[in-house]
Structure to design on (141 residues):
């Protein structure tokens, strides 16, 4: 974990638990764990050797977080569509996986908080375990 004062005011125990379930589910492929709200974010975990400093990591992750924060605005529409009658019901939103050339970004949203997990390339089945565990932690908080 990265030691700092949290901008999101996340509880230390919740931060530790989120990193723990992500590392357990995703193993050595895990690159970073980011907790975010509609207005700010904290990097909870960053694999060594990826960035020179925490400030470099924050600058690099800012654009990613800004792109993923749009999920808070999309959520009511996605939920309404999945519940509406007369349309294809695909169920409730659970999480988003974005595929990139050399890895993945997983976004988990629960109410007004979210978590991003970034990984190296890997088997995608592990994402469901990680996302389900993170959602449970966010709900229970």
């Amino acid at each position: 974990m990265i030691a700092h004062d949290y901008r999101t005011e996340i509880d230390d125990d919740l931060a530790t638990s989120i990193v723990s379930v992500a590392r357990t589910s995703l193993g050595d492929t895990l690159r970073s764990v980011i907790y975010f709200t509609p207005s700010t974010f904290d990097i909870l975990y960053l694999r060594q050797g990826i960035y020179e400093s925490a400030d470099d990591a924050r600058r690099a992750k800012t654009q990613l977080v800004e792109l993923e924060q749009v999920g808070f605005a999309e959520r009511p529409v996605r939920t309404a569509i999945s519940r509406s009658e007369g349309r294809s019901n695909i169920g409730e939103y659970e999480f988003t996986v974005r595929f990139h050339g050399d890895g993945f970004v997983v976004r988990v949203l629960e109410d007004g908080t979210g978590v991003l997990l970034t990984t190296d390339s890997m088997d995608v089945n592990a994402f469901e375990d990680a996302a389900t565990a993170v959602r449970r932690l966010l709900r229970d908080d």
Remarks:
- The two ends are 19 Å apart (CA to CA).
- Residues 4 and 42 are 9 Å apart (CA to CA).
